[in-house]
Amino acid sequence: MSEATPRRRRVRPRSIAILVGGFALFTWLSGGPPAAEPQLPAASAAPTPRSSAEAVEALATLDAIIRAAGLAPVANGADVRPPLPPAYLDLPRFVVRGVSPADAAGMPLVALAFADTTAATTAAPEIAAYLVAPTSLVLVPPGTRFTVRRIGSLIVLFQRTPSGDPDPAAADLLEATLGAFGEAVPLPR
Length: 189
What we know:
This protein is α+β, with helices and mostly antiparallel strands. Helices cover 34% and strands 20% of the residues. The chain has one domain (52-184).
């Protein structure tokens, strides 16, 4: 009995060229290679404060406003990102929620911390104008109202949609209480 030796196939350069050309054609027709994944910061990461004193001051201010409205302050929870001009996106941002019996999630107050009072005073009108600009209003629910106050080197923002408030009375009270703190930043109409 004789053993059959396996027959070796010879790979021809023409076959390889057709195979490579087919892959190239497929890649070209499908739009090319996949795009690189963007390297962005985590969605809930707020810029870090410049100092611990800055964080303590901002959180204490928000806490005082919420307590004055008779609500319970909660400093943790989902991050809140109001529409801001691109130049101010890297500012340290602090969020404290005012919780009421009818609204367990709470109504967020957002503080933007500036290096000093002069910087906050200069930026306040620009931020107010950006909040009500038509390009920014597509980022918030219809009927959203903003309250903007400058308190020292902080700009405090309160965003609410009256038709969607779980506790409208508490939201009205928080909005009125915020009006007693700092200096009003008028919103252009």
